[in-house]
Amino acid sequence: MNESIAHTTSTDSAVTLSDDERQPCEVWTRVMGYHRPVSSFNRGKKGEHNERRFFAEARAALG
User: Which of 1, 38, 55, 59 has a Cα-to-Cα distance from 9 of 20 to 30 A?
Assistant: First the structure.
């Protein structure tokens, strides 16, 4: 049995979708030990979520 499978990809072609082919992406985050969708947050909590900063180990090691 030959298990090698040839995959061909083209980096020159871009995928283009019309608006009716797109679907919304639901973003979840961990809050107080459990996961919740960001869409269920009230206005203040959404603002806090947008102001979050993410830790990057490489940047911390340089400082």
Answer: 1
Give me 12's structure tokens: 């020159």
Residue 8 has pLDDT above 80, yes or no: no
- Domain for residue 57, yes or no? yes
What is the DSSP annotation of 1-63?
----------SS------GGG--PPPPEEEETTEEEEGGGS-HHHHHHHHT-----HHHHHH-
On whether the CB atoms of residues 49 and 40 are closer than 8 A, the answer is no
Q: In terms of pTM, does the model score above 0.85?
A: no
- Domain count for the chain: 1
